Amino acid sequence: ALERTQTAQRLESLGQLAGGIAHDFNNLLAIILNYSQFAAEQIPTDSEARDDLARVLRAAERARRLTHQLLVFARSERTEPAIIDLNDVVAEANDLFSRTLGGHIQLVTRTGEQPTTIIADRSSIDQVLFNLVINARDAMPDGGVLVMEVDHVEISSDEVGYAPPPLSGRYIRLTVNDTGTGMAPEVVNRVFEPFFTTKAKHEGTGLGLATVYGIVTDAGGSIRIASELHVGTTFSVLFPAAEVSDQPTATVADRPTAHGNGE
Ligand code: ADP
C-alpha cells in the first residue's frame, strides 16, 4: 500500500510538472502564433516567405493542440464531481455530432427511459465521449455507422477484459461502436499508453485514450474494448450507478473504487 501511495504521489508531481511546463509553453506559443500571423499579413502575396511562415503557423498550431491535450491529461484544472445523467450527456452530444461528423457517417443514438445517473465531473465525461467519438469517426474515413448508447448493467463477479476489472455492482454503461478499421490485438493492448498513436504525424497525439482512462478510473469506472480488424470497434465504459438521492457532496475520492482506494 505504501508503494502504491508513493507511486501515486510521484505521478501526481509529474503531472503537476508537466502541467506547469505545458502552461508556459502555451503562452510562448501564443506569442509565436500572433507574431507569425502579423508578419504573414505584411508579406506580399507572391513571396515565398509566405509559404515558410504558413509552415511555422501550422506547426505552432499543432504544438498548441498538443500542449492543450497535455494540460487536460495532467488535469491541472480541478474537477467537480456532481450527479449527472448520461442520457443527457449523450443526447446533447447527439445534437453536436449530428451536425459535425460529416454526411458519410450515420449517427445512431440510443438512450433509455430510466435515469442513468453517475457521480462525475460533467466536462470530463463530455471529454470521454468526445474522444471516443472522434476516434470512431477517424476509423471510418470511407463512412459507416457510429452508435452511441447508454444502458444499465449489473456486474456479478470480476469480469475479464476490462481495464481495470470492475467490482460487482450496478453500473451505467456508455458504449461507442463503429464499423471502421478495427484494431489488431497488439494495438488494443497499447491504446491507453500516453503518446501511443497509429495516426499520421499531424493528426494524432496519442493522448486521447490515456485521458479517457484517467477520467474513467478516477470516477471508479472501467473500460472494455471489443475490436475486429475490418469490422469495427466497441468501447464500453462502465461507471458506478448513483442514486439521485446520493449525497451530491460525496466526492469520487470517497467512494471505493476498483483499485481499492477507500482502505
Ligand atoms: P490518437 O487519437 O491521437 O491517436 P488515442 O489515444 O485517442 O490517440 O488513440 C490511440 C490509438 O488507438 C489510435 O491512434 C488508433 O490506432 C487506436 N484507436 C482508438 N480508437 C479506435 C477506433 N475506434 N478504431 C480503430 N482504432 C482506434
From TrEMBL:
Highest taxon listed in the record's lineage: Bacteria
Stretches assigned to the Histidine kinase domain: 20-243
Subcellular location: Cell membrane
Protein name: histidine kinase
The organism of origin for this protein: Krasilnikovia cinnamomea
Included range, full protein: 226 to 488 of 608
